[in-house]
Every structure is written in C-alpha cells, then in structure tokens.
Design a protein that fits this description.
The structure holds two protein chains of two kinds. By secondary structure, chain A is mainly α. Chain A has helices spanning 2-20, 25-46, 71-102. In chain A, 26% of the residues are buried. The chains are: A mainly alpha, B mainly alpha.
Chain lengths: 114, 519
C-alpha cells in the first residue's frame, strides 16, 4: 500500500507541476488542484497508513497509536481541503475575469509572439 | 484580562465578519468600525507590551486544549513589536484609503480587518499549522485588497501573486506534514525539544522539511531567487494597499527569525539557515538596489527598496549573533515605515502629475511642490539611511555589530554599495519630480503631441488629505524611532537575546496554564 500511495502522490505532483508550468490559466488551475490533491494525500500519509482502525478512543482499548489511526493528520487534511477549495474558487474567478478583460486566457494576459 | 493575548486576532476578525454581513450600511459606519477595530488592536498591543516588558512570555491556550496538543498563542517582546508595526501599517493604509479609494469597490474595510486579524495571528501563534491557517487568512484578504477597484493590470498581477502563493502553501503543507511525520508534533516549542532527539534515519527528512520551510518563508520575505512576484504585485496595487503590503515581507522575515531561532538547539536547523540565509540575503540586497536604480517609476523604485530592505534584514539575521539581530530588529521597524511612506508618496505624486503619473521622467510641474517635495525628501533620506533619520541609526547599528563577524566584510561592502545605489536612485527621482518640471520650452518642442496640452497640475495634497496625513504619521513614527533610539534599542536587544536563547519561550509555551473558569 505504501508503494501504491507513493506512486500516486508522485504522479499527481508531476502532472500538477507540468500543468502549472503551462501558460494558460485553465491548465494552471487544474495543475494547482492536482498538486493540492497530492499534498493532501501526503499529509494523510504523515499519520502512518492503517486500515480499519478508529480515530476515536474506544473504552477498554489502550490509547496508543498501534490501536488507533492518528486523528491529527485527518484534521489537518480537512482544514487544508477547505482552504484549498476556497483558494481554487478565487483563482477561477480571477481566471474568468482575466479572460473577460483581456480576451485571452494566457497567464500574462497577452498572446505569445509567434 | 485573561484573554488579552487573543484579542488582536478576535477583535478585527469579528469586526470584519460583521462588516461583510452589514455591507449595506453607509461608508462612514464602515470607516468608523474598521478604525475602531485597529485602534482597539493598538490598545490591546500596548497592554500586552506592559505585560511582557520585563521579559515574561505570555501564553494563551485556545479552547483550553493544553500544549503540546492544543494551539498555543505566545506573546513576547518581539511579538509585541511586530503587532505594533502591523497596526501602524494598517492605520496608515486606512488613513490613506479614506481619500476615496475605499469607496471604489465593496468590502474594503471588512477585508482590511480580516487582513489585520491574519497578520496578528501569524505573529502570535506558536504552532506551525496554525501559522499556515493565519497565512492563508492574510493572503486571501490580500488577494481581494490587491484586486480592489479592479482594472486589467490588477487582474493579471493578482493571478500571478495568487499562483505563486498557492504553490507556496502547497510547499508549506508538505513541510508541515514531513515534520509531523518524523516528530509527531507541530507545536514550535515541542518541536524544538524533539528535533535534537531524532534518529539518523529521520534527520534528512527533518532537514528537507526545514529547507522547505525556508523556501516558503523566503517567498513571503522576498528572498532571492523567490522575489519575482513582488515588483509586479506592488506595482499594480493602489498606493494605500501597497503601503500596507510593506509589512508583508516582514511577516516572512519574522517567521524565519522566530522558527529557526526557536529550533536552533537542533544543529540541523541552524546549519541550513546559516548556510543559505547570509549569501542569499546579500544577493537579494544587491538585486533590490540595482532594481531601484533601473526603475521606471516611483512605485517600482519603492518596491525594489522593499526587496533591498528584505535582503538587508535576512542577511543580518543570517549571522545568528545577538547584537546583529538586535540591530536588524531596529532596521525592521524603520524599513516598514520608510517603505510604506514611500508608496503613499508615490501615490500622491502620481495623482499630482496627471498623465505623467509617477514615471521617472520629466513631466507636469507640481502644484505646491514644496510640501510634497519636503515629504519626499524626508522619506527618501529615511530610505537611503542619511543622518539624522532612523535609517542612519539602523544602518549604523547593522554595520557596527557586524564588523567583527566572519563574512562581515561582504556584508559591509554589499550594504554600503546598495545604500549608495539607493541614494542615487532616490536623488534622481527627486530631482526629476521637483526640480525639472516640464517648461515652456519642452511644451513647444512637444507641441505636436496632443496629450501634453492637459498638463494642468492637480493639488495632490489638497485633494488627498488622508494620504498626506498617513505619510506625516509614518514619518512621525520614523522620527520617534530616531529620537527614542536608545530605549528602543535596549528593548530590541532584550528581544533579540530572548530570540537567540529561546529556553524561556519554549518553557513558557509548553507550560501555559489553562484559562480558569470564573466560579
């Protein structure tokens, strides 16, 4: 599972960075979204991977990390998702506004010289 | 006041939220509410200053979740100083915006309040993830403020600024996750205790996390080669907003100073910053000074000076010596005010010269050039560091304290060369604006050019009393800095000493008592 997750994060990051380096705003938005997915998965994995363990303390089970999933990274991911969502919304508004104002979706607001 | 430490965040946050809901109220209510919020933060900061003046570190546990699990806010002398600077910048921005900039789009005052809350939170928190959250709060309101009143250039500049900072946020989260993965904590004090105990296998991970943190704070602080977002952003912003942004790079500088000094018990943290901070800071300083020399208008010149002052600060912090850090703190306070004043003056000159804007070229003669010229002269002297201004005292402090350090030679050469370039650039700007206005001869020469017919100057000072007051306020703060230099330097030496040996801070953060309920 570690290998699968690592490959997934790596792929998402690579695709995200590739798209971000392109000069059109829509690609950049997609790239940033993919990058934030990769980051969220990465934060999640910082709490170690575990299957079928509860994040809340159950009476009678000793409160060590071997019996539970670490709840803190889950809380961090939740916060990061909300913030990332808000930022993506702002960026989309800006991208649409820029397209309306300049008539081009280039990030520099002008078509590159041929 | 058991909740005093959280007031600088709570008051503007609540005011901002209320103002968003009550957006239909008249502008004067918004102006009063945001001014009152800023003044209340100022009062809370002064109360915090008296509570921490003897070196106590005031802690506050949010929601009574005890450290290291809960989020801790901590106030010491450095925090108080940064809170004060943020409040001064926000007050100057408010004052400057009341000339009508705040009426050109909705929610200006609400955004400014949220901005202040984010700034105060970033200075107060002792938790890395909480720092990320406050960063985002201050960033998202800064995007909206930068975009305020719209315009093509602003949309492009905000897009660039937003994308750079989103990448920065992603890197920040990766660093935070790495640190949590190897140490199991995000509380700064707890981190300082756990980093030195890491096993050899985990050490490289922690080191790369710290390096990523340096990158993130470097983006905020405009450290070379991460400062390319700054000139375009500051150039597009309206004058009061640019003045407010002068405090932004200081957030990055503060975070570098706070985080890496607190973690300095771990050789890993110290090694990284000591290796990169001084040389990169010097490069930033030099590039900023060259940029100032090459600027085409006063806004770009002021933005380059912000970069140069960031470079000065970061390289002097890179010595990790107590005296130099103390001098750097004085320079930090000075450069915030000088930078903000210069942006506001650029706005005034832009208004006065009509279509010639603030281009560094011969243009429209200025009405009442004496007053505006006087303000420009004083703030230029401050920025260039000429006696008897606070800039001179700040640079003198940096030079004397770094003389005995290794690589002090490089610091001296670059700082002095940069100052000389800055001085020439500012002198050139001043003489173009005030001594060589467009004369009849020029007008005749250019008579074929129709736009030059409308060269009637506007009385910038008369039509913008707010911005003028803000400039006078900032220059007065600078003068106060120069007059009260001795007690202030004593205060900053104490703050720098506490920063360099953070045992008190760490102890206080880890043993914050819970807030007791009233029986």
């Amino acid at each position: 599972m570690e290998l699968l997750l690592a490959i997934g994060i790596g792929l998402l990051t690579a695709v995200g960075i590739y798209l971000m380096l392109r000069a059109r705003t829509f690609d950049v938005v997609l790239g940033l979204t993919l990058l934030s997915y990769a980051v969220n998965l990465f934060i999640f994995s910082a709490g170690r991977l575990a299957v079928g363990k509860p994040p809340l303390i159950v009476p009678g089970v000793s409160p060590t990390l071997s019996n539970y999933a670490d709840p803190l990274p889950q809380a961090l991911v939740l916060t990061a998702i909300v913030i990332g969502f808000a930022m993506t919304a702002v960026l989309l508004v800006l991208a649409v506004r820029g397209y309306a104002d300049h008539g081009t979706d280039q990030v520099d607001s002008r078509e590159p010289r041929a | 006041m058991r909740h005093l430490a959280v007031l600088p965040v709570l008051l503007p946050l609540l005011t901002g939220a209320l103002l968003i809901v009550l957006r239909r109220l008249p502008l004067v209510v918004h102006r009063t509410a945001s001014s009152l919020a800023a003044l209340a933060v100022l009062a809370a900061t002064l109360a915090l200053a008296t509570a921490t003046a003897d070196g106590t570190v005031l802690g506050y546990v949010a929601g009574n979740w005890l450290p290291p699990f809960g989020i801790v806010l901590a106030v010491d002398r450095l925090t108080v100083m940064m809170l004060l600077l943020a409040t001064i910048a926000v007050l100057a921005c408010l004052c400057g915006a009341m000339d009508g900039e705040d009426a050109r789009g909705p929610h200006f005052h609400a955004l400014l309040c949220l901005q202040l809350a984010g700034l105060c939170g970033a200075f107060l928190t002792a938790d890395l993830f909480n720092l990320f959250v406050f960063f985002e709060l201050l960033l998202i309101s800064s995007y909206a403020l930068l975009l305020h009143a719209g315009g093509g250039e602003r949309v492009t500049a905000t897009t660039h600024y937003l994308v750079v900072n989103l990448v920065g946020s992603a890197v920040f989260l990766i660093a935070v996750a790495l640190l949590y993965g190897v140490t199991g904590t995000l509380n700064l004090a707890d981190l300082a205790a756990r980093l030195p105990q890491l096993s050899d296998a985990d050490l490289p991970l922690a080191q790369s996390a710290l390096l990523l943190l340096l990158v993130v704070f470097g983006i905020k602080a405009a450290l070379a080669p991460l400062y390319f977002w700054l000139p375009g952003t500051y150039h597009a912003a309206s004058a009061p907003i640019a003045a407010l942004f002068a405090v932004f790079t200081k957030v990055g500088v503060y975070c570098i100073a706070r985080v890496f000094n607190t973690l300095s018990d771990s050789p890993a943290a110290l090694e990284i910053t000591a290796r990169y901070l001084l040389p990169l800071g010097l490069v930033t300083l030099m590039l900023g000074a060259i940029g100032a020399f090459a600027a085409r208008d006063l806004r770009a010149l002021a933005a380059s000076l912000v970069i140069a002052s960031s470079g000065t600060l970061l390289s002097s912090l890179g010595f990790f010596a107590r005296d130099t850090t103390a001098a750097a703190l004085f320079y930090l306070a000075h450069s915030t005010m000088a930078g903000a004043a210069l942006f506001l003056i650029a706005g005034l000159i832009r208004l006065a010269r009509a279509e010639h804007e603030d281009n560094l070229a011969i243009g429209t003669p200025l009405l009442r050039a004496g007053w505006l010229g006087g303000l420009f002269f004083v703030s230029a002297m401050m920025s260039a560091g000429l006696p008897p201004t606070s800039g001179f005292i700040a640079k003198l402090g940096l030079l004397t304290t770094s003389a005995a350090q290794t690589s002090g030679f490089w610091f001296w050469s670059v700082l002095l060369a940069g100052s000389a370039l800055t001085l020439v650039a500012l002198a050139r700007g001043g003489s173009l604006f005030f001594w060589r206005p467009l004369t009849a001869a020029h007008l005749e020469l250019a008579s074929a050019d129709p736009p030059l017919e409308n060269t009637a100057p506007i009385g910038a000072l008369r039509s913008s009393p707010g911005a003028t007051t803000a400039v006078v306020f900032l220059l007065a703060c600078g003068a106060a800095l120069a007059i009260a230099a001795t007690p202030l330097q004593r205060y900053m030496s104490a703050a720098a000493a506490a920063l360099a040996s953070p045992t008190d801070y760490i102890h206080a953060v880890l043993t914050v008592p819970p807030v007791e309920r009233r029986p």
